[in-house]
Amino acid sequence: QKDPDPIGMAESRIALGLGYLENGAMIKAHDNLQQALTHAPDYYRAQLSMAHYYERVGENGKAEDIYQKSARQHPKNGNVLNNYGTFLCKKGEYDKADRLFNRAIEQPYYYLIPASYENAAFCALKAGDNVKAQTYFTRAIDYDPHRPKSILNLAKLEVDAGNYTQARLRLMRFHQ
Q1: Residue 134: predicted pLDDT
Q2: Where does the record place its TPR repeats (predicted)?
Q3: How far apart are CA 137 and CA 133, in angstroms?
């Protein structure tokens, strides 16, 4: 017998699983996230939640398998591309991550563009590419002028580059 609403059932289990995960109840988290995947095995939110679980418990190989599968099944889903990019950046795979962030940003119905630019900027910083980071932080602010992390990090990069006036103006606008 099929679930009458597999996505709804999966969403309930995802909410429970992520709640347990945040509270450190890893066995209950895994059980609920596994049930979400049982209800809707191809649902990207169930896949991303389980990948996140595996990251949290240090099973990066399993996390990567799920991210790869999800990216194959949902190649135009900005959330999948962004989350996989974040995972790859944590692993030090900066170029691959950068490509995924940019693919996420290009998706027509993806609305978390400023978050992806910000993630790309932090990844560029980790890679030691301050120029690219500055560009991405600027783009994040273009889309969302009230992103504190992007504003503060861009100001820090401007100070580091000796652009004190620009950094000062940016911080004054931020504090208004």
Answers
A1: 98
A2: 114-147
A3: 6
